[in-house]
């Protein structure tokens, strides 16, 4: 709500500056005074205008403060320091509007595509995948909360080397038939079986040079299709993919569409993209140097340097005619933007308990005629770790070189850093940690080596630990009730932990830190909501009714000034969520949730609401608790965190 007030303030000042001084400042810096008693907004534009107007900053500030017409929602401004102008909200009016939940709806054109998770379907999901999925899912929730239409896609590389390695493991190490492998996929944790087999296969490659040749033979068979090895790869990848969806569903993470690389290849998406790239001169055929015989991507002005080939050019098609990962990705992104001229076929693949249908790509001849429309979006966000920054930038540049500058401007690589384990966490998980590793701040995981945390194991362990705490606090509840509450706490703890660090930070995961009821954690924020809910339960009224009270906010803020800070922070929720979207950084939401919880807990301990004898003040305190509860629930919901009834 306060975002719209700030915009109103900026517009009024810009209009006054044009009228008074004939100057236009397209952007105005808005700071906060050092103390809230001085106001909510501090504007330093007088310093910027001083040289242009040949006046002292304070003189300009005094002129503006004196002559600026009244602005709806604001008190008369005050000059501070050497030239700041402080603006104070009409706090009673602002609180009344916030209590009513007044907001201006925003309409948006176009659809946004968020691609996240994208796990190779060759083994169980691990802790690093959880950061990707939680970031992506949270960003989807933020966009939808802002009124945007979003498609969620999970790209499946079902023809890559990782799937080939598991096929090699089954067919050349364990010598299993197609029927035997099919039977194994019925096991509840088939993805765990593949986890161990994948690590075993990686070791097997090191035992003899001819073993690695088998990998290439199998990979080529899978890419080509129409043979038993490709059929086995399909059986394995579909079974593992189903397990991945089940794992992510435990965290409330869902998808709309699963585009697969097999269709990218077999529907000749690349052939169509290749023609566009050659026609527009984005690719050229190199006849000299180390890239001789390859199709490489143009770097304007670098095709020849002093008559020599550009040795650093990106190879898109190798000299043997095979297209690299980036080439397939360019084709896929042209489809995303509706620029390819061809579409997938669509089949139903997975149905969530809530009735949400997940579609998977297939040959159009095998697909269903009645399906949602995917692709043709206006914006793209790809949640992919920082190691893929260079390929992502190459794809984006190719789209720009094709002449689609507007599309390239709306292509965002939503990058993030890796997840590791604290030594204590690795020991808790049963790993043998060396003395050297115990001294490190974190230990990197490796799926190829079999060292890592399976996502389901992590979730199970968190639920067990949280439920044990609930058991000790609430023995009066049934076992299923305690387990359900423990699950809500565990999922909240995990999601919050993955979101509270900025994307560029390496995360060292730790069970005890994530589950702590104090400090910057999910349980701490959840507990603040539970406390607030208990107030209303004991008072015998609904939180919404408390927000509908006729309260003289101006009077009570004057009497208890520090409570205004509670309302001020609560009113920033929508602004914070907008910031998360504009900066592609959900960590702001986590920080806001923590600050809301802190302010509420301080308020809770300082003011005894239920025993307050003054009826007017009691209504004021109840309204304060209600608005904090509402806003904290809202920001937690945007993070995918629900609140249990008790903790």
UniProtKB/TrEMBL annotation:
Residues 3-89 form the Arginyl tRNA synthetase N-terminal domain. The keyword Protein biosynthesis applies. Residues 525-647 form the DALR anticodon binding domain. GO terms for molecular function: arginine-tRNA ligase activity; ATP binding. Its EC number is 6.1.1.19. Keywords: Aminoacyl-tRNA synthetase, ATP-binding, Ligase, Nucleotide-binding, Protein biosynthesis. One of its GO terms (biological process) is arginyl-tRNA aminoacylation. It catalyses: tRNA(Arg) + L-arginine + ATP = L-arginyl-tRNA(Arg) + AMP + diphosphate. SUPFAM superfamilies: Anticodon-binding domain of a subclass of class I aminoacyl-tRNA synthetases (SSF47323), Arginyl-tRNA synthetase (ArgRS), N-terminal 'additional' domain (SSF55190), Nucleotidylyl transferase (SSF52374). GO terms for cellular component: cytoplasm. It comes from the Bacteria. Belongs to the class-I aminoacyl-tRNA synthetase family. This is arginine--tRNA ligase. It comes from Koribacter versatilis (strain Ellin345).
């Amino acid at each position: 709500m306060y975002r719209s007030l700030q915009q109103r303030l900026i517009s009024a000042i810009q209009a006054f500056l044009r009228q008074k001084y004939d100057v236009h400042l397209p952007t105005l810096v808005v700071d906060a005074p050092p103390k809230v008693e001085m106001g909510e907004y501090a504007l330093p534009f007088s310093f910027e205008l001083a040289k242009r107007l040949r006046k002292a900053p304070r003189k300009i500030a005094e002129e503006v403060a004196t002559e600026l017409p009244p602005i709806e929602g604001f008190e008369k401004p005050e000059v501070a320091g050497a030239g700041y102008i402080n603006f104070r909200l009409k706090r009673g009016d602002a609180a009344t509007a916030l209590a009513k939940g007044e907001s201006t709806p925003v309409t948006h054109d176009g659809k946004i595509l968020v691609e996240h998770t994208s796990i190779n379907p060759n083994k169980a999901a691990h802790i690093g995948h959880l950061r990707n999925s939680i970031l992506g899912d949270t960003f989807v929730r933020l966009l939808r909360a802002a009124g945007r239409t979003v498609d969620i896609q999970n790209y499946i590389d079902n023809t890559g080397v990782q799937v080939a390695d598991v096929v090699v493991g089954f067919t050349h190490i364990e010598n299993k038939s197609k029927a035997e492998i099919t039977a194994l996929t019925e096991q509840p944790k088939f993805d765990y079986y593949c986890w161990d087999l994948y690590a075993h296969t990686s070791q097997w490659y090191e035992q003899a040079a001819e073993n690695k040749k088998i990998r290439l033979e199998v990979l080529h068979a899978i890419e080509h299709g129409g043979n038993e090895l490709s059929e086995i790869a399909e059986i394995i990848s579909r079974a593992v993919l189903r397990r991945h969806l089940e794992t992510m569903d435990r965290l409330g993470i869902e998808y709309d569409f699963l585009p697969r690389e097999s269709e990218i290849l077999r529907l000749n998406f690349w052939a169509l993209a290749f023609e566009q790239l050659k026609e527009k001169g984005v690719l050229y055929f190199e006849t000299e140097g180390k890239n001789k015989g390859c199709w490489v991507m143009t770097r304007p002005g670098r095709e020849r340097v002093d008559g020599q080939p550009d040795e650093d050019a990106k190879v898109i098609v190798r000299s043997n005619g095979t297209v690299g990962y980036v080439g397939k990705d360019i084709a896929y992104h042209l489809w995303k933007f509706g620029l390819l001229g061809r579409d997938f076929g669509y089949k139903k693949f997975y149905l969530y308990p809530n009735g949400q249908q997940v579609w998977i790509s297939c040959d159009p001849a095998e697909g269903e005629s009645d399906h949602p429309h995917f692709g043709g979006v206006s914006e793209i966000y790809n949640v992919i770790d920082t190691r893929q920054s260079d390929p992502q930038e190459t794809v984006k540049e190719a789209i720009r070189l094709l002449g689609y500058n507007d599309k390239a401007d709306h292509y965002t690589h939503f990058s993030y850093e890796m997840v590791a384990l604290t030594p204590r966490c690795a020991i808790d998980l049963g790993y043998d940690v060396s003395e050297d590793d115990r001294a490190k701040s974190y230990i990197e995981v490796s799926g190829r080596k079999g060292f890592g945390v399976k996502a389901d194991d992590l979730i199970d362990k968190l639920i067990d630990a949280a439920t044990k705490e609930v058991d000790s606090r609430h023995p009066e509840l049934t076992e299923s009730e305690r387990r359900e509450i423990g699950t809500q706490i565990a999922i909240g703890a995990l999601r919050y932990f993955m979101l509270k660090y900025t994307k560029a930070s390496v995360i060292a995961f730790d069970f005890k830190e994530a589950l702590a009821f104090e400090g910057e954690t999910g349980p701490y924020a959840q507990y603040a909501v539970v406390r607030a809910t208990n107030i209303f339960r004991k008072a015998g009224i609904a939180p919404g009714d408390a927000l509908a009270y006729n309260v003289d906010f101006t009077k009570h803020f004057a009497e208890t000034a520090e409570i205004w800070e509670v309302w001020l922070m609560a009113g920033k929720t929508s602004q914070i969520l907008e910031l998360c979207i504009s900066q592609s950084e959900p960590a702001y939401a986590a920080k806001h949730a923590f600050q809301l919880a802190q302010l509420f807990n301080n308020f809770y301990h300082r003011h005894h609401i239920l025993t307050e004898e003054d009826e007017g003040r009691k209504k004021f305190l109840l309204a304060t608790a209600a608005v904090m509860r509402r806003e904290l629930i809202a920001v937690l919901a945007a993070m995918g965190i629900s609140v249990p009834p008790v903790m």
